[in-house]
Prior knowledge:
By secondary structure, the chain is α/β, with parallel strands linked by helices. The chain has helices spanning 29-41, 52-61, 78-88, 103-112, 124-131, 148-162, 167-174, 178-186, and strands at residues 21-25, 45-49, 66-70, 72-73, 76-77, 93-98, 116-119. Strand 6 (93-98), helix 4 (103-112) and strand 7 form a beta-alpha-beta unit.
Amino acid sequence: MRSVNIGASKQLNLADFEDKSLIIVDDDDPFRSRLSRAMEKKGFSVKEAKTVEKALEVIKSSPPSFAVVDLRLETGNGLDVVKELSKVKKDSRIVMLTGYGNLPTAVAAVKAGAIDYMAKPVDADDVEAALLANPDTKAKPPENPMSADRVKWEHIHRVFELCNRNVSETARRLKMHRRTLQRILSKRSPR
């Protein structure tokens, strides 16, 4: 990266970076290809990876300056990719994505080397803003954050999945009545 005057600017420009390489690691094929095309239009040189193994291969052969990594991949944990990239290229700018936004994984992602953590769905503008955010300024709050009802619904479904879709075990862990949980699970997600 060239020397950049980051005093008062809120966001860096991609032109400020000599290396514009970006890896997008996500096992959701349509999302990954849409985001790749959008980021290429914004000037990034994009490589895609569907698995942890493929991402580690790319990182070892030519470590990118930027990365967008999904937390949960079919073949493992995106944190492994973040840790490896941070080790290989310390100044890389990594954004972690997840369908389940929760504080412990956000903390783990930042400790592993990510500069930001975003809950899906995200668009290319949000990702670009996170990748190019000035490290000396606070991130601005999202324009359309999830509602409290949606966050609660996401959390309940995450615990349900972690309990292998066992309603009784999920209800016990969430300290709620099994029938109440069944009613919540039968409803559609709130906006």
